[in-house]
Amino acid sequence: MEARRAKAVAAATVLSLLVPLLVLLFRFGHTVAFFVVLAVAFVAVLGVLAWVLSLYTDLSHRQLSLARRSVSDREEHRVEYSFLRKVAGLPIKFRLESLAAATDGFRCLLGRGSSASVFRGVLDDGTAVAVKRIDAIAERGDKEFRTEVAAIASIHHRNLVRLLGYCVTPGPRFLVYEFVANGSLDRWIFPSRDAAADAANGRCLPWPMRHRVAIDVAKALSYLHHDCRARVLHLDVKPENILLDEGFRALVADFGLSKLMGKDESRVVTTVRGTRGYLAPEWLIGSGVTDKSDIYSYGMVLLEIVGGRRAIQVTEDKKWSYFPKIVHEKAWQGKALEVLDERLNREGESPPEAELRTMVHVALWCIRDKAEERPSMARVVDMLEGRIDVDEPPPQSEMLIYNILEHSVLDAEATDDRRAAAAAAGLLDLGPPSSAPGSIEVSLSGR
Ligand SMILES: Nc1ncnc2c1ncn2[C@@H]1O[C@H](COP(=O)(O)OP(=O)(O)O)[C@@H](O)[C@H]1O
Ligand SMILES: [Mg+2]
């Protein structure tokens, strides 16, 4: 505006000097009076030009400092905003270049699951992180990314892994987690093929830590089921998704398959993509999942923590070994100690019998076929911490999965129903004992 006014004044001045000059020139020719007026006009034009120039310089200075101020204001807001998000524990957005720099080009692989690869990294401020790159094909990867962010972006518990940030690219999506020093639980409870190396590395979790891990996980699940605004179903509870920090405290991780459940919803009908061996029977019959489905998987994990073995294994003579059935029988015979991981059975190291018995009984209650017979996660915490007694194991029952195995689903005579149920439970095509269980995908919708 100011610039336009200056231009108008300048033009008016020049014109008002030019017109008398021309009149003088035509009237008097090249006389002294004409040159005097010309000189005066020249000086006046110079003056006006100098004034316009100073006006412009002043204006551009002002504009420049305004622009600078707005950039610094924006930067200040950005810093303040990310500070507030950080303080509030909300995940922040990362750029792909920062993640590539933090992980040194995605070099150090920490682990790989069914849909993602996880790399170790260090942020600029020195925070150790685990960067999860979701490799699953576009649509599924995007769904898992959104599900995982939605489930844990705004919830906090000392036994849940912390999501620090995320990064969206046209290709894979990334989630940035706090780095958990001792990796996943499976590495600490299942013997590897090299027993000597396990002993040398101390890779066998002692009983007190196993007991504490069991309580930590129960507390995390209890929080998800009872204390969040929307109930969160994890739906993939297994040792690979439980991480151990430097003090061997457990953190529940991997919310890629989780579901949010409204407080007034009683069950969720969903496409099942759990992990073989940990799926609750209600998934087989397609009656939807509830928090009790997590409790079933938790019970299986509890048994694996006690026994130091997978719940379902193929023996050397190609038969099934179903650990829950063995444990149930031993518990009824009062011989719970016999199911303990034999590496813990050394003199002086074996657990207090009452503690072991409680853990075994709780596990057996959690894996009841009928969901309504399983205890809530809050009750499980009370049982494990000794506020509620569980002196008795649950009564004998069918154990659906055992029945399926017993009638060998691999038999040619097995009915189609059994085969379908077994496939849904992930019992067909089970890998060798030491291999990690993979994921299966079975759609139960419409059943
Ligand atoms: N925050 C972390 N710190 C250390 N290791 C991790 C972390 N997150 C994941 N891992 C490792 O990566 C593996 C796969 O991660 P996960 O989130 O379960 O991926 P997926 O969704 O593919 O199963 C885990 O079993 C664990 O060994
Ligand atoms: Mg996982």
Automatic annotation (TrEMBL):
Major location (coarse): membrane
Keywords: ATP-binding, Kinase, Membrane, Nucleotide-binding, Serine/threonine-protein kinase, Signal, Transferase, Transmembrane, Transmembrane helix
Region of interest (Disordered), ranges: 428-447
Domain Protein kinase: 104-388
Membrane topology: Single-pass membrane protein
Family the UniProt entry places it in: Belongs to the protein kinase superfamily.
Identification of the protein by name: Protein kinase domain-containing protein
Organism: Zingiber officinale (Ginger)
Lineage, top ranks: Eukaryota, Viridiplantae, Streptophyta, Embryophyta, Tracheophyta
